[in-house]
Amino acid sequence: MRKELHAEPDGRGLKVGIAVARFNEVVTERLLEGAIAACCERGVADADVIVARVPGAFELPQAALWLATTMRCDAVVVLGAVIRGETSHYDYVCAAASDGTLRVGLDTKTPIAFGVLTCDNLAQALARAGGDAGNKGTDAVLAALEMAQLKLRVCSVAPR
Ligand code: INI
């Protein structure tokens, strides 16, 4: 018989790591507020929320790796804001943050959600950090919790 597996973003009993970049702090602090509020709303105990601050989005994957491994978090979220400048630096930082985050998730098998805004200007970023376009920090926590719960279900299906 067909098996359909899905899960809800329930944070009860889970330990959540949040890596947040200080670069463009006016944006990332709002993402962090949204992320912490989502943890609280979804039942993650305050003592089970670990926030690691890093200089910029480029450093997020390394902090995510430590949160997933040494800190044994059940789910990890990375938060940052990369805003396009006049050089290609933007592209390198975006690629490092996204590729690195994906790699940490696959290598450690820990659910990791990507809450890094990649925008053309500050207004676009602020809109997505608690403004008109929602809060991507909140969305990232919901995605990470859903994946953590899905992992529990998938891993509890007996192999044939
Ligand atoms: N880091 C960001 O998080 N956002 C940016 O927009 C950004 N820009 O534009 O340069 C940025 N650069 C710093 C980078 O993430 C590293 O911290 C730095 O290169 C040191 O490794």
Write the layout of secondary structure elements.
Layout: E1 16-21, H1 25-41, E2 49-54, H2 60-68, E3 75-83, H3 89-108, E4 112-119, H4 122-127, E5 129-131, E6 134-135, H5 136-156
Parallel strand pairs: 1-2, 1-3, 3-4
Antiparallel strand pairs: 5-6
5-nitro-6-ribityl-amino-2,4(1H,3H)-pyrimidinedione binds next to β3 and α3.
Note down, in words, how this protein is organized.
With 160 residues, the chain is α/β, with parallel strands linked by helices. The chain has a domain of 97 residues: Lumazine/riboflavin synthase (Rossmann fold), CATH 3.40.50. The chain has 5 helices and 6 strands. Strands 2-1-3-4 form a 4-stranded parallel sheet, sandwiched between helices. Helix 1 packs across helix 5 and helix 2 runs parallel beside helix 3. It is globular, with a radius of gyration of 16 Å. The chain starts with 15 loop residues before the first strand and ends with a helix. The model has no long low-confidence stretch (mean pLDDT 96). 5-nitro-6-ribityl-amino-2,4(1H,3H)-pyrimidinedione (INI) binds next to strand 3 and helix 3.
